[in-house]
């Protein structure tokens, strides 16, 4: 019987099998940020332990960082102390630290791939749920808790029960105006936020083969929002091309050796999955969410479903629409919006800024819309400037902020005020996620751009 991509990578990393228990897995790469690491480092200190492989560990500051005036001291005392703790811990243990203002600084899941830390066939963890992003390269990447961060820092291993395997296949060609974010929101709307709980997903088929690396990252990033432990895509020429020559990617002989392994990383014919889903690319249109979880999404031209159509918990459904101040059966197109957020580890990469700029080019931002355009990293910021995208954005009345998680979860000053409606390219639309009382519509960069210029929820296909 053939093996799946997931099995191939998992099995080569099992250090020990525990009878009827979890596997002990070796972890190749460990990303660290300021929110989930301080307690883990404290744990090491208390137990007198060292970081086992500092060279496999990389720290960046992203959640608490301001997105303007990054050259000034951070005002918020909690943020400042977490950022300082990260810096000191990294220094003490000899870990690469890309803090605020560092040229390589950015969101943890954006900088990993940018510097070649993320490569095919590795195991990769971070105390952060969207670690699934790195699966786009054919890595097994997943989020862990703070106590596990301590475990990995001290032993470079983790105990994990082996998840079940799911394959999601989408063949066909995506229509104009339909982006990787729409593909992901479509899948979650079909599977629900718990549809993949207990599974590790592999994305397969023409749509993912055709997709850019940035797009694959967007899709894998959102795997966690359907409950999956992670998601992955088999590496191909596009993957190898993307990683070649990056700072931490193997070079010379090491590259050739790695390629011999990487080229084996695909699911064999006849390999069996515990669950399979198949969708058709032609059925996917630009998506928008209308509720308070990422599974409450629909094609932008549709109407908000009634509780009856959705089935299941009627009162939870009604409460969710109540929070959003929406009615069953309403159109989403045409709803007045207040904020637009382009950024996050879901859609804060160069391709997302290109897509946004392609729509707003030659138009003007609606006066009543506050727009936060936040690159995922300094590297993205530099590319925005180099490619002339900044000029297009400025011309259309937009400003660019400095890198960080920003309004994705509003752990810094970028908070959407209570009651205000935001079209956001991030990944979670939970109650208050973007600030207490804020209301979030998840969408693609193109939907965000079209809505930013009209001031109401807008189908980007109007502008194509
Ligand atoms: C702060 C961190 C633990 C959290 C996560 O794990 O996802 C954050 O990144 C988020 O997106 O909610
Ligand atoms: S951008 Fe958002 S989802 Fe990504 S790591 Fe930061 S807070 Fe989490």
Summarize the structure in words.
With 464 residues, this protein is of the alpha/beta class. It has two domains: 1-285, Aconitase, domain 3, CATH 3.30.499; 288-463, Aconitase, domain 3 (2-Layer Sandwich), CATH 3.30.499.10. 33% of the residues lie in helices and 16% in strands. The protein is built from 17 helices and 18 strands. The protein has helices at 5-12, 38-47, 77-93, 108-114, 146-155, 180-191, 206-210, 213-221, 237-243, 253-262, 307-310, 314-324, 344-347, 350-360, 378-386, 389-395, 445-454, and strands at 14-17, 23-26, 29-32, 57-60, 96-98, 123-126, 140-143, 157-160, 164-171, 199-204, 230-232, 275-280, 287-289, 297-299, 339-342, 370-373, 421-424, 439-442. The strands form five sheets. A five-stranded parallel β-sheet has the order 5-4-3-6-7, sandwiched between helices. A hairpin with a 7-residue loop joins strand 13 (287-289) and strand 14. Helix 2 crosses helix 5 (146-155), helix 6 packs parallel to helix 8 and helix 14 packs parallel to helix 17. 53% of the residues are buried. The protein binds 3-isopropylmalic acid and iron/sulfur cluster. Residues 62-63, 107, 109, 128, 130, 344-345, 405, 408-409, 426-427 line the site of iron/sulfur cluster.
Task: Give the topology.
Layout: H1 5-12, E1 14-17, E2 23-26, E3 29-32, H2 38-47, E4 57-60, H3 77-93, E5 96-98, H4 108-114, E6 123-126, E7 140-143, H5 146-155, E8 157-160, E9 164-171, H6 180-191, E10 199-204, H7 206-210, H8 213-221, E11 230-232, H9 237-243, H10 253-262, E12 275-280, E13 287-289, E14 297-299, H11 307-310, H12 314-324, E15 339-342, H13 344-347, H14 350-360, E16 370-373, H15 378-386, H16 389-395, E17 421-424, E18 439-442, H17 445-454
This protein binds 3-isopropylmalic acid and iron/sulfur cluster (SF4).
Iron/sulfur cluster (SF4) binds next to α13.
């Amino acid at each position: 019987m053939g093996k799946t991509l997931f099995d191939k990578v998992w099995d080569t990393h099992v250090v020990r099998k525990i009878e009827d228990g979890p596997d002990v897995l070796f972890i190749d790469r460990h990303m660290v940020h300021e929110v989930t690491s301080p307690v883990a480092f404290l744990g090491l200190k208390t137990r007198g332990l060292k970081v086992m492989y500092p060279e496999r560990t990389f720290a960046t500051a992203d959640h608490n960082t301001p997105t303007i005036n990054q050259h000034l001291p951070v005002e918020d005392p909690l943020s400042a102390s977490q950022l300082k703790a990260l810096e000191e811990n990294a220094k003490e243990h000899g870990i690469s630290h890309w803090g605020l203002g560092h040229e390589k600084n950015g969101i943890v899941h954006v900088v990993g791939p940018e510097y070649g830390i993320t490569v095919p066939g590795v195991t990769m963890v971070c105390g952060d749920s969207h670690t699934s992003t790195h699966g786009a390269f054919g890595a097994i990447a997943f989020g862990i808790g703070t106590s596990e961060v301590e475990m990995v820092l001290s032993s470079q291993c983790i105990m994990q029960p082996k998840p079940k395997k799911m394959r999601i296949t989408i063949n066909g060609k995506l229509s104009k105006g339909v982006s990787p974010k729409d593909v992901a929101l479509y899948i979650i709307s079909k599977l629900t936020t718990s549809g993949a709980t207990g599974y590790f997903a592999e994305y397969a088929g023409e749509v993912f083969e055709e997709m850019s690396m940035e797009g694959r990252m967007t899709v894998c990033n959102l795997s966690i929002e359907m409950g999956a432990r992670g998601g992955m895509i088999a590496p191909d020429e596009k993957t190898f091309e993307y990683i070649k020559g990056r700072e931490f990617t193997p070079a010379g002989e090491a590259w050739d050796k790695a390629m011999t392994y990487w080229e084996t990383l695909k699911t064999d014919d006849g390999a069996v999955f515990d669950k399979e889903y198949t969708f058709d690319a032609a059925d996917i249109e630009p998506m928008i969410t209308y509720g308070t979880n990422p599974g409450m999404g629909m094609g932008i031209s549709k109407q908000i479903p009634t509780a009856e159509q959705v089935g299941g918990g009627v009162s939870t459904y009604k409460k969710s629409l109540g929070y959003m101040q929406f009615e069953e059966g309403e159109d989403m197109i045409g709803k007045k919006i207040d904020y637009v957020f382009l950024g996050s580890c879901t859609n804060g990469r160069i391709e997302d800024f290109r897509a946004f700029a392609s729509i707003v080019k030659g138009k003007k931002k609606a006066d009543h819309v506050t727009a936060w355009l936040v690159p995922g990293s300094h590297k993205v910021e530099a590319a925005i400037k180099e490619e002339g995208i900044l000029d297009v954005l400025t011309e259309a009345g937009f400003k660019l902020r400095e890198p960080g998680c920003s309004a994705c979860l509003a752990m810094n000053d970028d908070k959407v005020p209570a009651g205000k409606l935001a079209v956001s390219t991030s990944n979670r639309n939970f109650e208050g996620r973007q600030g207490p009382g804020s209301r979030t519509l998840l969408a693609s960069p193109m939907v965000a751009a079209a809505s930013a210029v009209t001031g109401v929820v807008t189908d980007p296909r109007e502008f194509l």
